[in-house]
């Protein structure tokens, strides 16, 4: 039993879609493959007849400005995102998240596309993109379309992408403007599965001492990546002080579902540390926005 | 685009190869190009051993589809060293790894070197932090991280400046002689940095089959049905064997023969890893598919998950003999009277977890049938002669029909003492008359082999107001899992050491070593003492606080010293360096902080609090308890003037081959380069006994030494007669004998001896000093090593996270034969102790293994490595080689309680269960505030 029979490296998105639809089934598209190939080897994902390696698709490998957006192809290796000044200048939270994804060797092949396609509610890249207000570019045989980022997620491990006919081609992130900044942090435990106990990304825009706008993403705070919209609404256009942060924490706790994950974290612990994690992340982004 | 061929450039050579379905780059390199320097440690993108460069980027070749490498440039570890004028010139990184002692077992080294190579290409002048960042996920279980880091920084300097390689500062032994006591490079280090070193899975034989094991995967059951017919019929399957096919005895075992090689129908399954059938097929994939086709049915039985439950009345009995493997008792004086005389009595119960050795090289055995009916078994094993006898018993053969050909071992730590695939491979090779390779993947390794005993330890201590210990009572429950393995021995050591390294008049220790339906537990560095030391040393700090005494002062007051009588009734008459460990460590720690045990709040981040903690331990060298403890060494002088020293002791990375080489070099007054070492071959090297109990430097070191001394005497006698001089007038110097002003080379001596019909060869059997069985008084062990460690931690009072910043480790090792190797053992020991304390937990759920991947069982990486300061104490033991005692285990034992005591000193939370759970710290601190 081989993990795949046939290996294909399409040269364009349309060729990739063509393979996805017409190559001998089952067809499994991979980006870096660092998770998916292991799942196949460990019997947690069916073996493929055709493995489609998307890393060869040039359009999915670019980091560039497109209008008012930063575009990151779904197959750009995480290490190249980390090395990109364009990303660093526009999406610090994503840099900080990418810096914590796996280890250096894995980052040379792992991609944001793969990180997001797994549809985990607390993937580091996912949480950063959620706070950065990203949208996803989806490809199918009709062409490309944009999808608000959070609409990609249906449930834990369940993506809205139809894996038999669609691909995530890349991500659009609004370019950073004056007074805007972002940050990402997470809390781990040294034992067991290398999944965060909690991670948090904050994007904000400030004007003097006022929070003009804010996006807060926390994982896992529910079955899909959690945007703390109640806390965001509370903070919008308010002057920042300790009390505002305390009130925002309350909203985060009210709205989010911080449940127990066996051997990873209890609900009680998550509810305790989320306040500090959010405060630290928010404060970091706030300090950055002064520059 | 579909391709039928790929073209790739590997180490400057271009290959065009047909595409193979499902192939990863690691397999292509290893299987098709025979570049076996690239190692597979986990096959799950966790360990970094398989790192190669693809277009200058380090990637994990175990999850990199080979076809993706089409058109790319690959560099493997074999591509770094270059031939210059017919001489292999190491790359500066390779040279630095050798010179800095960064190479131990060597299995991870290709990954470390390639990761470092990529780093220095990108960043020629990295900081320490940048080195650590790059190596974050390249794991080393010998944990030579400080030396790896220093080697990379040294190589960077040389590459940048062209200066000679900066060498490490290595202390010299106070008992040094010509060779021993000075820094010495391992004889196998160069092969380990070039990728030439061969480990078992690197071997291939013509016509070889691949084996897989069908395991029960239920914890406790009766096997009611086993149908192998579908598997047998699968094309490419050569043999499917069950218990019915065992020619000799069904069971194997190191001490007690209680472990069935295969479980038969109507027999009892005792843990998930029990084997019920074995398959040999043309490829590993076919073997794996065949295993899936085997139908098995079970009647499930209630599962015993812990040792306390196992001893309760009315529980199912796992073995015919019951669930109690052994009740171990230590008695000294009258503990009841002791508690009556005590001013303060404290009592507390501690729990330690199951842990896995997680050696980087998973188990591999290859059995090769020979035309004469014998079978060779290629395997990395800590006890080659025991492998031979255990295989022979199951095969129903004479032992001599089997030859164990020991291979380089990618770590063992006690986990390669029991049988893994040796017998299964032999059964299949015998049935098929073809070579059979049985390689475990990481998943199977985690499920099958014996672990460290999870232990519950109740400690009760009575003390006088002035701090003198009066009475110690301990009660231990050890989880030995489904089979005995070395459980009785391990738990005996846990028990005898459970009063700590202290002189206590009244002691009572009881231990119940219990069978359960968990994976078996056996030997693991520390051998039970890791567990009891955590309990006792925590309790010592609790007493110190209660007495308002300095924790060092309390320990010093009670420390074992010359003249002390241990809890087993042994009077210590020499080589007790414990007080010196305390003195030297205290001086060191007070240089850094005069009040080390006080909490220090970080003024910038008040939720971060630091403090130091301390713990002490002792650990026997050798088997002890009355067991005959011996090793044989066979030394031979050849006509080219070289020597070979042979013993079937095991080299698992710890550095024994270097020690043997140095000793022969010292005794024969010859360059170490003229001494070859051959170990672990039961046809070619005599029995060196088990590599366990920190015994080989002492036992096989002595065997080598006396073998060499005897050979030197024989040569002296020969020359005395031949040249008619007093033997005492013959001197050995600089690789030759000096007789009457003449210089005779060893080469000519060998020729002359052979010409006159004498073999320049000696086989020496060294018997260690006699010991006494537990309970009979007298010397239970012939030597002990001592250690005191201090750890500085930083605790996050909000999240409960713990970071270890500094460790000072003071060890009395008798004499440092190879200070460079010793450094590796000490730093590696600290890191393994740190892992035991903070990161490692082998989790089971009703006997099912939850931590069945390396991704779930976390061993410490370079990022967790604290600054480690080593203090070497050398109080020689009279019978040890040049005074040396064991060091392999002692270096890791006090680390856990030093860290947990530091946590208490920082934030007042007493950890009584390992590993440390940050949630517990956070919770206790929250509740204390409320």
CATH class category label of the largest domain in chain A:
Alpha Beta
Sheet with most strands: strand arrangement of chain A: 4-5-10-6-7
CATH superfamily of the largest domain in chain B: Aldehyde oxidase/xanthine dehydrogenase, molybdopterin binding domain
- Broad structural category of chain A: alpha+beta
CATH fold-level label of the largest domain in chain B: Aldehyde Oxidoreductase, domain 4
Mean pLDDT of chain B: 97
The major β-sheet of chain B equals: 7 strands, mixed
Strand order of the main beta sheet of chain B, please? 10-14-8-21-18-19-20
Shape of chain A: globular
Structural class determined from secondary elements of chain B = alpha+beta
CATH class of the largest domain in chain B: Alpha Beta
Structure write-up:
The complex is a heterodimer of chains A (291) and B (930). Chain A is 33% helix and 26% strand. With 291 residues, chain A is of the alpha+beta class. Chain A folds into three domains: 6-52; 63-174, 2-Layer Sandwich (Uridine Diphospho-n-acetylenolpyruvylglucosamine Reductase, domain 3); 180-289, 2-Layer Sandwich (Enolase-like, domain 1). In chain A, strands 4-5-10-6-7 form a five-stranded antiparallel beta sheet. In chain A, strands 11, 12, 13, 14 and 15 form a five-stranded antiparallel beta sheet that branches. By secondary structure, chain B is of the alpha+beta class. Chain B folds into four domains: 82-194, DNA polymerase, domain 1, CATH 1.10.150; 209-301 and 360-411 and 416-448, Alpha-Beta Complex (Aldehyde Oxidoreductase, domain 3), CATH 3.90.1170; 454-624 and 775-929, Aldehyde oxidase/xanthine dehydrogenase, molybdopterin binding domain (Aldehyde Oxidoreductase, domain 4, 2-Layer Sandwich), CATH 3.30.365; 630-767, Aldehyde Oxidoreductase, domain 4, CATH 3.30.365. Chain B is 28% helix and 24% strand. Chain B contains 23 helices and 38 strands. In chain B, strands 10-14-8-21-18-19-20 form a seven-stranded mixed beta sheet, with helices on both faces. A five-stranded mixed beta sheet of chain B has the order 2-1-5-3-4, covered by helices on one side. A five-stranded mixed beta sheet of chain B has the order 16-24-23-22-17, with helices on both faces. The longest helix of chain B is centred in the last third of the chain and has 28 residues, at 696-723. The radius of gyration of chain B is 28 Å and the shape is globular. Classes of the chains: A alpha+beta (291), B alpha+beta (930). At the A-B interface, β1, α2, α6 and α11 of A face β4, α8 and α23 of B.
């Amino acid at each position: 039993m081989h993990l795949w029979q046939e290996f294909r490296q399409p040269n364009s998105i349309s060729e990739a879609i063509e393979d996805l639809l017409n190559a001998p089934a089952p067809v499994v598209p991979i980006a870096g493959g660092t998770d998916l190939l292991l799942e196949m080897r460990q019997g947690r994902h069916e073996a493929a007849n055709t493995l489609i390696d998307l890393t060869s698709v040039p359009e999915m490998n670019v980091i560039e400005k497109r209008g008012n957006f930063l575009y990151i192809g779904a197959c750009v290796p995480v290490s190249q995102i980390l090395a990109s000044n364009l990303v660093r200048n526009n999406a610090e939270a994503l840099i900080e998240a990418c810096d914590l994804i796996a280890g250096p060797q894995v980052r040379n092949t792992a991609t944001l596309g793969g990180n997001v396609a797994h549809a985990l509610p607390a993937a580091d890249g996912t949480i950063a993109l959620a706070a950065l207000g990203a949208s996803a570019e989806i490809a199918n045989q009709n062409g490309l379309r944009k999808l608000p980022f959070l609409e990609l997620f249906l449930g834990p491990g369940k993506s809205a992408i139809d894996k038999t006919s669609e691909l995530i081609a890349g991500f659009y992130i609004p370019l950073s403007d004056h007074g805007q900044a972002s940050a990402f942090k997470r809390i781990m435990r040294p034992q067991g599965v290398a999944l965060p106990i909690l991670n948090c990304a904050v994007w904000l825009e400030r004007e003097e001492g006022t929070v003009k706008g804010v996006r807060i993403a926390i994982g896992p705070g529910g079955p899909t990546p959690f945007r703390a919209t109640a806390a965001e609404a509370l903070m919008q256009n308010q002057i920042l002080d300790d009390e505002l942060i305390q009130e925002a924490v309350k909203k985060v706790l009210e709205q989010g579902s911080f449940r127990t994950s066996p051997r990873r974290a209890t609900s009680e612990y998550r509810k305790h540390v989320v306040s500090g994690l959010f405060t630290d992340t928010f404060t970091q982004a706030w300090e950055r926005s002064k520059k | 685009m579909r391709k039928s061929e790929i073209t790739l450039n590997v180490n400057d050579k271009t290959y065009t190869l047909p595409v193979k379905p499902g192939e990863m780059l690691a397999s292509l390199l290893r299987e098709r190009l025979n570049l076996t320097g690239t190692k597979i440690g986990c096959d799950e993108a966790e360990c970094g051993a398989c790192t190669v460069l693809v277009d200058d980027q380090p990637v994990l070749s175990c999850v990199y589809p080979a076809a993706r490498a089409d058109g790319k440039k690959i560099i493997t570890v074999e591509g770094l060293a270059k031939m210059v004028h017919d001489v292999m010139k190491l790359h500066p990184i390779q040279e630095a790894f050798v010179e800095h002692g960064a190479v131990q077992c060597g299995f991870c080294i290709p990954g470390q070197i390639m990761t470092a190579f990529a780093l220095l290409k990108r960043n020629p002048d990295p900081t320490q932090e940048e080195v650590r960042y790059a190596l974050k996920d390249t794991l080393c279980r010998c944990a030579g991280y400080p030396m790896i880091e220093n080697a990379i920084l040294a190589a960077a300097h040389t590459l940048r400046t062209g200066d000679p390689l900066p060498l490490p500062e290595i202390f010299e032994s106070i008992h040094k002689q010509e060779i021993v006591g000075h820094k010495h490079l391992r004889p196998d280090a160069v092969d380990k940095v070039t990728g030439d070193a061969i480990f078992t899975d690197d071997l291939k034989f013509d016509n070889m089959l691949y084996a897989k094991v069908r395991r029960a995967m239920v914890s406790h059951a009766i096997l009611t049905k086993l149908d192998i017919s579908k598997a047998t019929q699968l094309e490419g399957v050569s043999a499917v064997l069950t218990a019915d096919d065992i020619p000799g005895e069904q069971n194997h075992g190191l001490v007690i023969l209680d472990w069935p090689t295969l479980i038969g129908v109507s027999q009892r399954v005792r843990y998930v890893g029990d084997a019920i059938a074995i398959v040999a097929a043309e490829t590993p994939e076919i073997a794996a598919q065949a295993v899936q086709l085997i139908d098995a049915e079970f009647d499930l039985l209630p599962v015993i998950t812990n040792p306390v439950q196992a001893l309760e009345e009315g529980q199912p009995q796992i073995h015919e003999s019951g669930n109690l493997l052994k009740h171990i008792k230590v008695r000294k004086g009258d503990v009841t009277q002791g508690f009556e005389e005590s001013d303060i009595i404290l009592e507390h119960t501690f729990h330690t977890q199951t842990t896995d050795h997680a050696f980087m090289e998973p188990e591999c055995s290859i059995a090769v049938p020979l035309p004469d009916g014998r079978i060779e078994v290629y395997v990395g094993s800590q006890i080659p002669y025991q492998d031979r006898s255990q295989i022979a018993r199951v095969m129903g053969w004479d032992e001599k029909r089997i030859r164990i050909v020991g291979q380089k071992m990618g770590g063992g730590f006690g986990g390669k003492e029991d049988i893994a695939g040796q017998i299964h491979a032999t059964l299949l090779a015998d049935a098929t008359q073809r070579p059979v390779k049985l390689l475990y993947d990481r998943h199977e390794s985690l499920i099958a082999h014996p672990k460290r005993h999870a232990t519950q330890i109740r400690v009760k201590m009575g003390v006088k107001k002035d701090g003198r210990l009066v009475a110690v009572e301990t009660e231990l429950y050890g989880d030995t899992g489904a089979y005995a393995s070395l459980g009785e021995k391990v738990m005996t050591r846990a028990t005898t050491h459970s009063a700590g390294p202290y002189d206590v008049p009244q002691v009572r220790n009881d231990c119940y070593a219990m069978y359960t339906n968990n994976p078996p537990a056996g030997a693991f560095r520390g051998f039970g003492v890791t567990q009891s030391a955590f309990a006792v040393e925590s309790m010592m700090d609790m007493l110190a606080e209660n007495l308002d005494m300095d924790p060092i002062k309390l320990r010093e007051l009670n420390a074992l010293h010359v003249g002390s009588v241990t809890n087993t009734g042994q009077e210590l008459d020499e080589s007790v360096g414990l007080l010196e460990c305390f003195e030297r460590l205290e001086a060191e720690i007070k240089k850094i902080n005069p009040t080390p045990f006080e909490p220090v709040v970080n003024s910038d981040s008040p939720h971060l609090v630091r403090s130091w903690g301390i713990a002490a331990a002792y650990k026997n060298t050798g088997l002890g308890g009355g067991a005959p403890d011996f090793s044989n060494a066979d030394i031979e002088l050849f006509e080219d003037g070289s020597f070979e020293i042979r013993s079937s002791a095991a080299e698992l990375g710890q550095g024994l081959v270097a020690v043997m080489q140095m000793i022969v070099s010292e005794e024969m007054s010859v360059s170490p380069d003229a001494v070859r070492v051959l170990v672990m071959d039961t046809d070619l090297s005599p029995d060196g006994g088990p590599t366990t109990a920190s015994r080989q430097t002492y036992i096989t070191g002595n065997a080598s030494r006396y073998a060499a001394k005897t050979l030197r005497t024989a040569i002296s006698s020969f020359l005395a007669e031949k040249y008619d001089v007093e033997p005492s007038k013959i001197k050995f110097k600089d690789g030759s004998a000096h007789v009457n002003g003449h210089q005779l080379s060893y080469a000519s001596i060998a020729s002359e001896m052979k010409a006159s019909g004498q073999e320049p060869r000696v086989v020496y059997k060294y018997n260690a000093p006699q010991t006494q069985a537990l309970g009979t008084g007298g010397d239970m062990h012939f030597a002990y090593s001592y250690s005191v460690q201090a750890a500085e931690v930083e605790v996050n009072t909000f999240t409960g996270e713990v970071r270890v910043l500094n460790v000072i480790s003071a060890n009395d090792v008798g004499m440092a034969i190879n200070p460079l190797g010793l450094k590796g053992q000490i730093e590696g020991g600290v890191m393994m102790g740190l892992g035991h304390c903070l990161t490692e937990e082998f989790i089971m759920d009703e006997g099912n293994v939850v931590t069945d991947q390396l991704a779930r069982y976390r061993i410490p990486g370079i990022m967790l490595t604290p600054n480690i300061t080593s203090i070497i104490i050398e109080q020689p033991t009279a019978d040890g080689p040049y005074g040396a005692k064991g060091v392999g285990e002692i270096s890791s034992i006090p680390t856990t309680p030093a860290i947990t005591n530091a946590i208490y000193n920082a934030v007042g939370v007493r950890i009584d269960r390992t590993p440390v759970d940050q949630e517990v710290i956070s919770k206790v601190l929250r509740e204390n505030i409320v």
